[in-house]
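[audit] Reproducing an earlier prediction to check determinism. Same input, same settings, fresh worker. If the tokens differ from the archived copy the diff job will pick it up downstream; this log only records the rerun itself.
[audit] input (208 residues):
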Amino acid sequence: MSLTTFASEALADFRTVGAVAPSSRYLTRAMLEPLPLKTARVVVEVGPGTGVITKALLKMIPSDAALLAFEINPRFSSYLGSVVSDSRLILINASAKRLQKRVHDLGYKRVDAVVSSLALGFMPRWQRDTFLHEVGSLLDETGVFTQYQYLHGLQFQNRQLSRLDLVGLLHRHFSSVTRTVVWRNLPPAFVFVCRQPLRAENRPEVCT
């Protein structure tokens, strides 16, 4: 898929695409290096798009591991299914809503890593809180979650643009949150690495 086609799809439905160009190899590296991929049994990717990170994940996970990729955009999902032929890839043409239930329905109780390219700033507050709650519930005790955010860090709420405090949001769901900057990406982005999910008894109530 060409950059022009990707950009056209992004302009047509930016809320679900959430990006203006495929992830660079530098962003991909920053998203994947913190993950325990060499020993992973189950990895979840949310928002794989055209599969840049997906292909890198398949090169790094064991031969008997499973990669569950959730892609809501039907054009991207169809494209990814046509260019990646790997029995370890389970492609789900659906959103991240009820992520935990969908993963459980596939027969997996816990996962080793979650990689997200979702545009959290363009999701309703309750939806992104629910998503992060479910990610934390799915992760094993040693699991790792990575999420990127463009440097502008904008969110769209109540028909207004403002800054999204993603660090604060992630800290409501994970004990450990670190951030790095990837300049060599279009546009530059922060990569957040989250560990030690807060369990129900220690986690603030999910926003409604």
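[audit] rerun output stored. Observation attached for the diff report: The helical segments are 3-12, 14-17, 25-32, 52-60, 74-83, 99-105, 125-138, 166-171.
[audit] end
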